[in-house]
From TrEMBL, chain B:
Family matches, as PANTHER family: ABC TRANSPORTER ATP-BINDING PROTEIN YTRB (PTHR43158:SF10), SKFA PEPTIDE EXPORT ATP-BINDING PROTEIN SKFE (PTHR43158)
Name listed for the protein in its UniProt record: ABC transporter ATP-binding protein
Key word Methyltransferase present: no
Lineage: Bacteria, Pseudomonadati, Pseudomonadota, Gammaproteobacteria, Alteromonadales
Record has Cell membrane as a keyword: no
Domain ABC transporter: 6-232
Organism annotation: Pseudoalteromonas phenolica
Keyword vocabulary terms for this entry: ATP-binding, Nucleotide-binding
SUPFAM superfamilies: P-loop containing nucleoside triphosphate hydrolases
Family annotation (CDD domains): ABC_DR_subfamily_A
One Pfam family recorded for the sequence: ABC_tran
Length: 137, 300
């Protein structure tokens, strides 16, 4: 019998996201970051409800959504397991993350006095280094 | 009708001149935990008392487990549990005596449930009820109510005045036993944090009328908060439907709307010439507070 993977997610009340959404987002993040690798077993509905002191039906609802998203699958009588991940972020989320990171980067460097050309060349150089390292591996 | 565990039809209740409940049409489906939310004096306790047949309506009807509340037989009452906010129990009896009495009254008594719930509280069987603290009395009351394995359990502000430990024990016992015995729980509370954790369905009552009966996510979607630069006139505000509040803060308009989803609300704002409205996320407690605060608005 596979052991349950400990789930280090937190829920807060008084948040704009309902608890059900917080669970879905929390587990998606754990999967995307690799904390929950393929094949990990999620806690039982009742187990997670007890851990978080929330209604079990809320957990069941979140698990259903994760199943619909294809992130986890239920194996009859065994529990819920993390599936092989494709890209876990949607196109929209990827774009959003890229935009956020670019904004942060620009805010950091804008007052340093480099020209656009210098900045672009530097970023290009860094990207090429990553490409080379990838190939060598 | 059998699909609803509780149903009221055009229920009215007046105390002298004061209207406690008016034209209340409430339907509560079987299963799950339903929270009744309303300001003080909104009519929640009156509603519970009428449902249980402890009080008679001025007009209209109410049904519980498909039977008229006003003509419940002992057999029906045996399938209904009730825990009031005072946790009233016979103070002169010892814990084991009260429990034995209950055990005789309820044929489906589940000793295992009683034991597991009472185990969360520091209650000795030989103690006198009068010697128990408020939290311990609450625990005993809940243990006995759940051990009856009722088909419907009504709790009137059960966690009022409990400390954090007793409250946590109470809520855990409530939630996890509910799933075991598949009972329908209807309860009221003013503690939003608790409601958010526990409730699957929110029933909002205001001035004796039912305003909403929704799951928390849907309910939150129906309350939106907007900030923009333009000031709106009364006639412009009236085009937005249910305006919960409109305030000017730092020369910007802060607007809370109900009964419109974000896209619909934005469309209406655009129609008023407001192009750049910022939407602010609304939490469940804020959404409920906004709705309940509407009729407590300070005069302008």
């Amino acid at each position: 019998m596979t052991k349950t993977t400990a789930l280090a997610i937190q829920i807060v009340t008084g948040d704009a996201r309902p608890i059900f959404r917080q669970i879905v987002d929390g587990i998606r993040k754990e999967i995307a970051s690799g904390t929950l690798p393929t094949g990990s077993k999620l806690p039982s509905v009742r187990g997670l409800a007890m851990q978080l002191t929330i209604n079990a039906n809320t957990v069941a609802k979140a698990y259903n959504e994760l199943t619909d998203l294809g992130l986890v699958e239920s194996k009859k009588g065994l529990g819920l397991f993390v599936t092989q991940q494709q890209c876990t972020l949607s196109e929209e989320e990827r774009t959003q993350k890229l935009e956020q990171a670019t904004d942060d980067f620009i805010n950091e460097i804008i007052s340093l006095g480099f020209s656009h050309r210098e900045i672009i060349e530097h970023v290009q150089g860094q990207l090429q280094t990553i490409n080379k390292q990838d190939k060598e591996r | 009708m059998a699909n609803y565990i509780i149903e009221t039809r055009a229920l009215h209740k007046r105390f002298g001149k004061k209207v406690a409940i008016q034209s209340l049409n409430l339907k509560i489906a079987q299963g799950g935990i339903h929270a009744v939310i309303g300001a003080n004096g909104a009519g929640k306790s009156t509603l519970f008392r009428i449902l249980l047949g402890l009080d008679a309506p001025t007009s209209g009807e109410s049904f519980i487990l498909g039977h008229n509340s006003q003509s419940l037989e002992p057999e029906h009452r045996g399938r209904i549990g009730y825990v009031n906010e005072e946790h009233t129990l016979p103070t002169w009896m010892k814990v084991h005596e009260v429990t034995a009495m209950q055990k005789n009254l309820y044929k489906n008594w589940r000793q295992d449930l009683y034991d597991s719930v009472i185990g969360n509280f520091n209650v000795e069987q030989s103690q006198k009820v009068s010697a128990l603290s408020r939290g311990e009395r609450a625990g005993l009351n809940l243990a006995m109510a759940l051990a009856q394995a009722p088909e419907v359990l009504i709790l009137d502000e059960p966690t009022l005045g409990l400390d954090v430990v007793a409250k946590q024990a109470f809520l855990e016992a409530l939630m996890f036993t509910q799933a075991d015995i598949d009972t329908t729980i209807v309860y009221c509370s003013h503690q939003m944090e608790e409601i958010e954790r526990v409730a699957e369905q929110l029933i909002v009552i205001e001035n004796g009328e039912m305003k909403y009966n929704e799951c928390p996510e849907k309910f939150c979607d129906m309350v939106t908060y907007w900030i923009f630069d333009e000031a709106l006139s009364e006639s412009q505000l009236s085009t937005l439907g249910n305006v919960l509040s409109a305030r000017i803060i730092d020369e910007q308009t802060h607007l809370v709307l109900a009964d419109l989803e974000a896209a619909e609300a934005l469309e209406k704002l655009n129609a008023l010439g407001i192009e750049a409205a910022t939407q602010v996320p609304v939490s469940l407690d804020k959404a409920i507070a906004s709705i309940l605060a509407k009729n407590h608005r300070v005069p302008q």
